[in-house]
Amino acid sequence: MKANELDEHVPDDPMWRVAQAVEGGVRTIRKARGKLNPEDCTPGTLEYEVVTMEFLDDCIRALGGDPDAEGEQDDGFSAGATG
């Protein structure tokens, strides 16, 4: 599959739409709270790295996860899982 063909198919994937909705919601909420989003920073700077990690943590929270939880949860999909 060529790259341009991939671009045509990805937006039709329901999970892609969910990911886009989560991302958009997190961006909007962060902006409303006066927080920076990654695109507000210069790529490659420490500020960009910090803001990007905070943004990803917020995305995890939006999905109901806890980015501060220690260890991995056993979801049965790890490489060593038997089944």
| Percentage of residues in strands | under 5%
Distance between the termini: 32 Å
Number of strands: 0
Oligomer: single chain
Low-confidence stretches: 77-83
Helix content: 40-55%
Pattern of helices and strands: HHH
How would you classify the helix and strand content by structural class? mainly alpha
Radius of gyration: 16 Å
Average predicted confidence as pLDDT? 83
| Count of alpha/pi helices | 3
Which features would summarize this protein structure in a list?
83 residues; mainly alpha
Structural features, described:
By secondary structure, this protein is mostly helical. The C terminus is likely disordered. The radius of gyration is 16 Å and the shape is globular. The chain has three helices and no strands.
Spell out the blueprint of helices and strands.
Blueprint: H1 3-9, H2 14-32, H3 46-62
Short note summarizing the structure:
With 83 residues, the chain is an all-alpha fold.
